[in-house]
Amino acid sequence: MKSQLLITVRGLLLFALFIATPRPAEAQGRVVINEYMPWPGSACGTTAEFVELLNFGPGPVNIGCYILTDGDFSVTIPEGTILQPGEFYVIAGQNVIAGPCANLDSTITADLNWNTCGCTSGPIPTTGDGFFTDGGSANEQVVLLDPQLNIVDAVARSLPVESNSTITTNAPLWSSCTSQTFNLNTLNVVYETIGASAGRGNSFARTTDGDCGWVKDPQQSAGATNNRGGEVQDVQYNFYYVKASTCGRDGKVAVTVSAPDFAGVFPMSYILALDSNKNGQFDANDQYISGTAINPNTITIDSLRPGSYRLTVASAKGCYLRTFPFFISGCSVVTLPLELRSFEANRIGEEVRFKWTIEEARLLESVIIEGSRNGTRFEPIRIQPVPLGIPNEWINQLQIPVAGDIQFVRLRMISLQEENSWSQTIRLTTGITTTPDRIYPNPSNGPIQLEAHFQTAGITEIRILNQNGQLLQQVRQPVVPGLNRISLNLSERPVGFYFLQFAEPGKQTSRSIRVRKG
Q1: In sequence order, which ranges of 9-74 are alpha helices (DSSP H)?
Q2: For the structural domain made of 24-218, what CATH number should be given?
Q3: Is 280:383 a contact under the CB 8 Å cutoff?
Q4: How far apart (Å, rounded) are the C-alpha atoms in residues 79 and 66?
Q5: Which residue ranges does the chain devote to CATH 2.60.40.1260?
Q6: Which residues belong to CATH 2.60.40.10 in the chain?
Q7: pLDDT, tens digit, for every residue of 411-449?
Q8: CB neighbours of 36 closer than 8 A, spacing ≥ 6?
Q9: Phi, psi of 488, rounded to the nearest 5 degrees
Q10: Closest to 68 in 3D by CA, of 198, 6, 138, 155
Q11: For domain 235-328, which architecture applies?
């Protein structure tokens, strides 16, 4: 039987007591080396080398004065460079890399050119090896350091890595970054290893953003949001609410970890973010806690007060990253009977047309339209206040600009008591997509029918929770693409409100429907 570790966070006012991470400059987010090109194609030239950084979140990170090095040269990122959650930062040997030299189908603009920034330890060759050592079997290393020389991320083709030199960094003349002298041999660097040979014209990319697995691919990213669509991490996570609502500080969530080898995953670290200013975004003004789980296989966080959170977990090497957004609702004697009757969305050029019908809308404070590039990590697109004097049934339609790389949308409904509920997720298409998940009869004294649309076949896990977020029953149900009708029974439950939660097979984002017994 796997051992379990209970990680308890006792109150969000005691943040300073729980900063337990060796990466102090990264307390609000996780930055990783997400892709790099060590050996460009002969037609592209040596200066087409690039390194792509990614902030996986949950909050923004100031990467100003961070140092990128291969052990022979260093590049210092200009001060004040803020990387938002989900944002990429491309460092290269030229300002613009034409396709297909960094991306097969588009031109890439670098955020920092190491040949013109005046921020390198010495002149980097523009011919021959360049920044990296050419050759398929070269064990070139790539290391990212924070301004205090703490290791943020480190990757190598294989071990042992190439020999290192003593480096003295050179910050841009107009910056206040401090010059540092170091040698990677003395920093006790622990590398992620890729294993594959470089190959001319191929980049090394994480199989999915933030993963520990790497692939050698034709150049395809340098700022794209996913390096290998459809790939699944070797480590799987299951997030669930232990107590979804609280009258004080007793909200509780947990994440269980499944891995083929726990020794390569633990100790795990996490960053817990609270949207303390309630502006719908996770920024530098919010609150963050870092913690560590020493032993397999569950991370449990309790003493949570009401609010909107993000939890980002990472393996021992800082990869196998996953972020879970969640909400702890406030104390409420009676659960409000909000109900989303329908939700539609379709893309029209550079805009998306939304339409929804919400019952008991007079109990709403606002509706937030959220968007995602990958169906997992959602960001606010627009906050829609509820008009004064709204009737019980709110039928609303609006059309707003939405970035072309946003592929999924959903609604977040916030009640006057600051309780949150989410709609099902819609994948945007050029035609109207409606997914009318519903339960009937509702209310019910016994058997009920759940009608839900699924995009893929597989197994969905249906969870029945009471209004305090406590899990009462769990059912695994095979589903097929399209409309599914699933029979459930509440006859043994007392009169009251319940929540049914379920997710698309293989996905973490859950959908929720409220049902009343009696």
Answers
A1: none
A2: 2.60.40.1260
A3: yes
A4: 8
A5: 24-218
A6: 235-328
A7: 888 877 666 777 777 888 754 444 557 787 877 878 888
A8: 49, 50, 51, 52, 132, 142, 155, 203, 204
A9: -135, 165
A10: 155
A11: Sandwich (2.60)
